[in-house]
Amino acid sequence: MTTLLIYDVPDDALRYRVAEACLDYGLRRVQYSAFVGELSRNRQEEVLLRLRRLIGARPARVQLVPLCEKDLRLMKVLVTSGYVLPR
C-alpha cells in the first residue's frame, strides 16, 4: 500500500536518524521531512515501532498516512524551476 510518512523533529541529529530509518524501509524522500513508498500494514507498524524506539521521550511528531490508488490518481504536484529535491 502506498504510504506517506511525514514528521516534525526539532533535534537535527535525531531528524537525520529518522530520515535514515525511512530510507531503510525503501521510502523515497519527496520533501525535507516527507517520504513516500510501498509498505504493507505489517511494515507500517514495524517502521512506527522503530521510530518510537528511536525517538524515545524526545519531542517529535510522526504521521503515517496510507494513500489509496484513487487519491493518488487525483494528486497534483507543483514544482517551480530551480527546485532541487533534498537529499
In a nutshell, what does this entry contain?
The protein is of the alpha+beta class. The protein has helices at 12-24, 41-55, 69-74, and strands spanning 2-8, 28-31, 34-38, 61-67.
Classify the beta-strand content into a percent band.
25-35%
Mean pLDDT: 94
Briefly, what CATH class?
A: Alpha Beta
- The domain tally reads 1
- C-alpha geometry: globular
Strand order across the largest sheet: 2-3-1-4
Textual characterization of the structure:
With 87 residues, this protein is of the alpha+beta class. Helices cover 39% and strands 26% of the residues. It is built from 3 helices and 4 strands, in the order βαββαβα. A 4-stranded antiparallel sheet has the order 2-3-1-4. The radius of gyration is 14 Å and the shape is globular. The mean pLDDT is 94.
List keywords for this structure.
4-stranded antiparallel β-sheet; 39% helix; alpha+beta; 4 strands; Alpha-Beta Plaits; 87 residues; single chain; 3 helices
Layout of helices and strands:
Layout: E1 2-8, H1 12-24, E2 28-31, E3 34-38, H2 41-55, E4 61-67, H3 69-74
Helix pairs in contact: 1-2
